[in-house]
C-alpha cells in the first residue's frame, strides 16, 4: 500500500479484525519495521530517526499497556516528557505544568496519585492518552483508543482530540472499529481488508451501506445528522422479516 498524510490530517483506519490496522500504526510508531518499502517522516526514513527524536514528533497510544513495576498515574504521564528532559532527566516546572494540564484534559486529575494497577481499563486508557498529550506531539497515533471507555468518556475523549487537532494542527491517525465515531470526527477514512486498502476518501464517500456490508457482513443504513455528518444504524433488527 502507499499512503501519505499532511499536517493536520485526521484519518481513521477501519476494517475487520486482522485487516492490518494495528500493525500499520505500530509501523508508523517505529515499533515494527517494514519487510519491504519505507516509512518516511518529513522525508527522512523512520529507521534513521532516533527514539528520542521520534518521541518529540509523534505519540502512540496502544490498546493497553502494563508496566512491570509499580507506577502512579502522575509518574506515567511524566514519562511522556522523557524526550524533552535535560541530561539529568529532571522535570522542570514547565514539564510538571504540562503533565497537570494533560491530566485535566483527559478527566484524569483525580487519578494522579493512584497506582496504575488499581485503575480500571477505561481509567488507565485516559492516563495513557494524558501521557501522550504531555509529549506535546505533532502526530498522535491512536490504536482502538475507546476500547475500554464508557460512552461519556468516549465522547469526551474525542472532543479533546478534535479540539487539539483543530487548535494545534495536530495530525491524528486512528485505528478503530467504531464506524460512527470515525464518521463524526475523522476527515478521512482508510478502509482496510486483508492487508489491502479497499477505499480511501472522506467518510461520506467510504462508509456507504454497500461497502460496509461487503467488508463487515452487516447491513446498516445512514441517517443524516446535518452539516454533512451522518450516523449508521441497523437496517433491520433481529426478528424483523428480511
Explain what this protein looks like in three dimensions:
With 242 residues, this protein is of the alpha/beta class. It has a single domain (10-203), classed as Rossmann fold. The protein is built from 9 helices and 10 strands. It has helices at 21-29, 51-57, 73-78, 93-105, 121-134, 151-168, 179-185, 203-206, 209-216; strands at residues 10-14, 40-41, 44-45, 58-61, 139-143, 171-175, 188-193, 196-201, 220-226, 229-234. A 6-stranded mixed β-sheet has the order 4-5-6-1-7-8, with helices on both faces. A two-stranded antiparallel ribbon has the order 2-3. A two-stranded antiparallel ribbon has the order 9-10. Helix 6 (151-168) links the parallel strand 5 (139-143) and strand 6 (171-175). It is globular.
List the helices and strands and how they pair.
Elements lengths: L9 E5 L6 H9 L10 E2 L2 E2 L5 H7 E4 L11 H6 L14 H13 L15 H14 L4 E5 L7 H18 L2 E5 L3 H7 L2 E6 L2 E6 L1 H4 L2 H8 L3 E7 L2 E6 L8
Parallel strand pairs: 1-6, 1-7, 4-5, 5-6
Antiparallel strand pairs: 2-3, 7-8, 9-10
